[in-house]
TrEMBL record:
<feature type="region of interest" description="Disordered">
    <location>
        <begin position="282"/>
        <end position="319"/>
    </location>
</feature>
<protein>
    <submittedName>
        <fullName>Uncharacterized protein</fullName>
    </submittedName>
</protein>
<feature type="coiled-coil region">
    <location>
        <begin position="27"/>
        <end position="54"/>
    </location>
</feature>
<feature type="compositionally biased region" description="Basic and acidic residues">
    <location>
        <begin position="287"/>
        <end position="296"/>
    </location>
</feature>
<keyword id="KW-0175">Coiled coil</keyword>
Length: 319
């Protein structure tokens, strides 16, 4: 923030007041502010390092606990010791339940239905566990982004009022600092959203392998998150265009409009979903056109094979 203050000060010295810095003592007051920020930063870094250290130990403890669960389970159900699914949380929790049941009742099941039935086992795969984590990360990011944007709006309004009312320079500086921090947090959350968007693209591309990745990438991020939910709820048809239509119906039932989609929150609206209908039609048409092209290629391929077969038969007849 202070770098921007200096840039504006060099353009017009009176602009230093926008940051609560007296033009006549700009360099001196800027230096004092930097010292104060450095002191706060040192305290913050100390707390952050302590948090990261605690988080590191927690993760190690969790991994050790997971390993113990899998070992205990393998001792009881050795025939299923090969079922690991990358030691994800879902499979670990399931094994823990069976271990605890055995310890309490001393009863061992002849077979574990979740591992024998493919329809049940799909609820414990590493793919599903990753999708659940991705959905949570997405929701957390959206919530944080919403709060950060509201903070920017709040401090922007407060800063404008304080500056225009001729408040004290300390008050102007403190409020401007809070505004810049809020803007920084928005930028951080937006960067995180970009990373999450890439993870969602990767997950959906593996689920809709018959669709070009560009089609998935063109789908608004908010809708991609809803597609991910369809798979977690076992409602997906496996066809992108059909799943998008399901999402459209869900949004209509919820009374939400994405005609002016923005990834902070859905805007409550009435029954007008003309914009989203057009969006789905465009995506659906692209998918349909691709299917038509594929059918055309198959017909041409069959036709060429038939021509080659007829040619060979004619050669045999001539011989």
């Amino acid at each position: 923030m202070l770098d921007n203050a200096e840039k504006e000060f060099n353009i017009d010295k009176s602009r230093g007041m926008r940051y609560g810095l007296l033009p006549q003592r700009f360099a001196e007051e800027k230096g004092d502010k930097i010292k104060g920020l450095n002191q706060q930063a040192q305290k913050y870094e100390g707390n952050l390092n302590a948090f990261h250290e605690s988080e590191k130990h927690s993760k190690i403890a969790l991994e050790v606990q997971k390993e113990i669960v899998h070992q205990e389970f393998s001792e009881i159900y050795s025939e299923y010791s090969h079922v690991t699914e990358e030691y994800n949380t879902l499979i670990t929790d399931l094994k823990h339940e069976y271990v605890q049941e055995y310890l309490k009742t001393d009863v061992k099941h002849e077979q574990i239905e979740e591992f024998e039935n493919p329809e049940l086992f799909k609820h414990y795969t590493s793919e599903r566990a990753n999708d659940i984590e991705l959905k949570k990360d997405w929701e957390d990011n959206q919530h944080s982004l919403l709060i950060a944007n509201r903070s920017v709006a709040k401090w922007s309004k407060e800063y404008s009022g304080i500056y225009s009312s001729g408040s004290t320079r300390d008050k102007i500086y403190d409020t401007r600092l809070k505004l810049e921090i809020a803007k920084y947090q928005v930028n951080q959350r937006e960067n995180e959203k970009g990373v999450l968007n890439g993870r969602v693209n990767e997950s959906l591309s593996s689920k809709y392998q018959n669709q070009p990745s560009t089609l998935i990438e063109q789908t608004p991020t908010k809708l991609k998150a809803r597609l991910l939910e369809l798979h977690l709820e076992n409602r997906s048809t496996g066809v992108l265009s059909k799943d998008l239509k399901l999402v459209e119906k869900d949004l209509a039932r919820e009374g939400k409009d994405i005609s002016h989609l923005y990834d902070k929150e859905f805007v409550q609206a009435g029954a007008n979903i003309g914009g989203i209908a057009k969006l789905f039609d465009n995506l659906g048409n692209q998918s349909h056109d691709r299917d038509k092209d594929y059918d055309k290629i198959k017909r041409k391929s069959k036709s060429k094979m038939k021509e080659r077969t007829l040619g060979k038969n004619n050669e045999l007849e001539m011989e």
